[in-house]
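Could you please review the protein record set out just below?
***
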Amino acid sequence: MYIADLHIHSKYSRATSKELEPEPLYAWARRKGIGLVGTGDFTHPAWRAELRDKLAEAEEGLYTLKGAGPDAPRFVITGEISSIYKKNGKVRKVHSLILLPHLEAAETLSRRLEAIGNLHSDGRPILGLDCRDLLEITLESCPDAVFIPAHIWTPHFSLFGAFSGFDTIGECFGDLTGHIHALETGLSSDPTMICRCSALDGYTLVSNSDAHSPSKLGREANLLDTGLSYPELARAIQTGEGFHGTIEFFPEEGKYHFDGHRNCGVCLSPVEAEAAGGVCPVCGKRLTTGVLHRVEQLADRPEGYVRPDARPFESLVPLPEVIAASEGGSATGKKVGAKYEAMLAALGPEFSILREVPLEDIRAAAGPCVAEGIRRLRAGQVVRRPGYDGAYGVIELLSPAEREDLKGQVSLFGAEAPKAAKTARGRVAKPARSGEEGAAPTGGLNGAQRTAASAEEATVAVLAGPGTGKTHTLVERVVWLVEERGAKPSELTAVTFTNRAAGELRARLEGRLGKRAARAMTIGTFHAICLELLGAVPLTGPYEQRAAAAAALAELGRKGSPGAFLRAVSRHKTGADGGDDPAFALYQEKLEGKLDFDDLLLETLRQWEGGRSDRCFTHLLVDEFQDIDPLQYELMEVLQAHHRNLFVVGDPDQTIYTWRGADIRFLLEFADRFSPCKTIELKRNYRSTPQIVSVANDLISKNTIRYRKTLSTVAPSGLAVRGHHAHSSADEAAWIAERIAELHAGSLEEGRNPVDYRDITILYRAHYVTRAIEEALVKRKIPYVIYSGVQFFERSEVKDALSYLRMVCYRDDLSFMRIVNRPKRNVGEQRMRFLREFAAGQRISLLEALRRSLDDPFFRGTSAREFVQMVDRYSADASHRTVSELLARLLDESGYELALRTEGSQERLDNLAELRQSIYEYETSCGEEATLERYLTHVALFSNIDQGMERDKVRLMTVHAAKGLEFPHVFVAALNEGVFPSRKVRSREGMEEERRLAFVAMTRACKGLYLVDAEGAAQEGIPRYPSRFMLDLKPGLVEFDEPLPDSLVAEARDYYRLSDSKIAAAERLRSAPRFKVGERIRHRVFGVGSVREVDEGRRAYLVKFDDMGTMRTITFRVPLERVE
């Protein structure tokens, strides 16, 4: 039996490695243990010439590298062709894999295809050729060819692709369908998924890597029990004779398993995608339909169906990924690479190690973690996070705690870790941890985790600090309930706060309980669970909600952003804001009876409070409980009311979402509200070094509204936490970039190990601070990517402002098209079309076309004349003004900045302020040379920078976006008072939330933590001071490059005291009730009413208005007048 990988590419295909040549392919096939490799790209003439030069004929139709021995890997002639054409009224994009018996056949077929399209530009050519016609030409040129539809489920380019494929094979190939005998599964599916489609019975299912670099060979492959020759290979594929089975990726690891939208980080199961209406719940754009969803659409058999005659397959993961998932680190890192090479040298080819080598030998050569990882891989005990929208999925084999435990067992006892024991129901349990008093019934838990997972009490609250394994504990609680207490999975509900977290939780439970049990559970966000409970309800998508909001504002004659209005509506519906607004009711009318996302919760609450109980949950488990809002809290109370089996996990110190309704008191007062309740603390951190944990503990200890707990850590001592006080934002950014370069070069980390860029993250409070950092990274040629945000010079408002400057300087058409109607000047698409046609006919610029058209009646009612006059005036005057003054005047006179203020777009205003700051810094550094044209040339470097396709990039993100993640090295930037903590803080509770946010930032770091601030002036012109979150730390916890001047520290502390006194005074005014029960008041919208109750706890009045049937809750901060 031999292993064959038939679908690969050469260096002549786009986006492939230059190492894809015969010699490296031969070498990697030997390392992997692959006996037969496709050549790929037979259509490319240069590749065919190279194959003729370097390969020698071996068996019939097979080749080997010249000079290689008799056991060398063989090559077979293969290639992939992309067909893009229109059929049945729809554009089709389908890829096909073709196998040929010899190079002469490749020459013949290529000559036929060259008459149709260009074969020289890409090793995988794109032809405007119907797949049926391509098949016909192939068989006419070479009757012995094997024609296989490639990766048949890939959304964009495949036979059954969701966006451009077909629903049946016959629809694609018509009268030649009988010549299709095999189908390629692709990385995001496996044979069990395809078995659900009875129309595909009888086809041989092949799997290949589609490798774009030599190291990716064998990600998927075929097991063949035939002789080595092309005729035997072809017969095996076309008849199944001698075709033993396949080696598969876990389908979740493929790039398109789930639905999703990568730019927004949205990953959804088919059910969740259907609930969202097929659009991204973040931005409203269309989701990329995943392979699982597409299979569901075409399947006529239930999930889990297995054909009796189905060929076997093995699910494996490339060895470097196994090493990384077992020991930590990056699969492409140097440490993993060194271990990979050592294992090959000691144990043989990769496939042998993954499939056959005894675990004892693996343990001796690679250590206990890798041996345990491979054991779990072979047993299918793999936690999977599905890939989506082009992002590969992630597999997990050992948690950080389990790695430490396995290493500890070797160091303590010098013996092999105990083998996994069978549980009472026969499933394999994870190895028990050492260093604890006895083994947990579910294994892999420390003492506190075990107590939580196996608590007998009905109500349990787990207060879990960062990195303490709370999700692991939640998983083991479910396992304990099912396996030890006999709970039915169908009666268990687990609530998470993101779809990504729900997918990860389900994947982990599948690894522990199996797919059937895990999928019987109800797992999801509150919204997803409510949609499942309610069934078919009319649900609005983001576009409809935004349209309804805009219509409501317009009808009331209000200006403002629909997005900001929708956030206010949500806060009102969820109980986060007691105020009311007539626009809310009007918005609801505009929805025309449909439900928005908050209505899902409200309707579920209404039905269950009304007595509905057709769905019975014996156990309710809630993750990230600190993020719950008042409406979700009410819903939780109702859903668990019957059985009162409630298990919540959270950390009050990580409550950072009060702005969307979360309340720290829900968790702090949980034990009193749901008495009797067992409360368990998880304080052992498995993520961070003692140095990082000490800083985090000291920081959060300054908060008063919290549950007192102190984290400890099992990690060894590491790098000191470093602090740096820079003299400007530019110096701060340069220092960060320099430290990153040192880390990447291996001159900072202990042991001088180079750090991959992807293991370095820069966190910040708000996106506007990234401008200087991005410039410094670009100058250093350090690749980076911004998560949940846009690179500074690519942000819409920044591009608009720069376009105003370019318009004045260059009077170019691109800038004109961008800003002529920003803000609105009534120069819409029809008038723009007129201008484009006029300009093209007269061969003049769009600005000149508009100038000549100002007296045309078509432009009456527009602000076009004012726009032209403004551009002309500042163009003539530009050389006499500084760039910063010019921009300020343009944004003011154009009305652009006023429009943003009217919308309430504070973040966009902050970005404009940061742009002005960058221009000021540029003018300061360049002096008289800081002309408008020079500045625009300078900024073009950053706005047009091409970061390429590198995946090894430094990550930039806000702290909120980093919640729930961890990174080896973390830089917390812009730690300045007024930035972090935010200048928007208006209460002591708000300041404590900012400190919790800083706590979250610091506890994302595993190995290195770097705290940075900069001098200068804030956007309001006041001096910038280091954040209290740096200066309030105990001396010695942070190692500063240079001691902070005593005068600076004293000034900063005076500023803190002044700021705190203003907050306290404002808080006293807001919190003190101005009216008593019985007094008459007037509200600007609701009119006159009487105060019926004063709730000082909620800082609100209960008011009965004369013209309203129900009483209203009005917060103290709402302006009210006393009526005498």
Notes: Residues 1046-1071 form the longest helix (26 residues).
